[in-house]
Design brief:
Blueprint: E1 2-9, H1 12-24, E2 29-34, H2 41-49, E3 57-62, H3 68-73, E4 82-86, H4 90-98, H5 106-117
Parallel strand pairs: 1-2, 1-3, 3-4
Helix pairs in contact: 1-4, 4-5
Length: about 140
């Protein structure tokens, strides 16, 4: 079974989960909001991972590449069927959720990340084609 964790500094992760539910309905997603209470980040991670079975696929989204939340998950990279994606955006999260395969390959995850990166656009330099039918 695929398990997804979204982790961030502050409450960004909780907002991501709320928005994912808006678009995709209830999902098997946990979130970690780091540094918003007295619980340590490590304790929050351990608490969630205790419910994950060895053969579960684990996909972790973090907010900042190299940030403390991202670094806290790096020790799990050696866990089989584990993918960690830093700098998460809504496009990559929704795309991963839409995949129903048993396990995603590294190549599949890489391709999804590349496509999601295209969603980051500086609109001042982007030509938008709007038809009269758009509202």
């Amino acid at each position: 079974m695929r398990k997804i964790i979204i982790a961030s500094h502050g409450k960004l992760a909780e907002g991501f989960v709320s928005t994912v539910k808006f678009f995709a309905g209830e999902q098997n997603i946990s979130f970690i909001c780091a540094y918003v209470d007295n619980r340590s980040l490590e304790d929050k991670i351990t608490s969630i991972l205790n419910d994950i079975k060895e053969d579960d696929e684990l996909i972790v989204f973090t907010d900042l590449l190299g940030g403390s939340v991202n670094r806290a998950f790096l020790s799990y990279l050696n866990r089989e069927h584990t993918h960690i994606i830093a700098g998460a955006n809504l496009a990559v999260i929704l795309e991963i959720i839409s995949k129903q395969e048993q396990y995603l390959t590294q190549k599949e995850v890489e391709d999804i990340v590349v496509e999601a990166q295209k969603q980051l656009v500086y609109m001042n330099c982007y030509e938008v084609l709007v038809s009269e039918d758009d509202e």
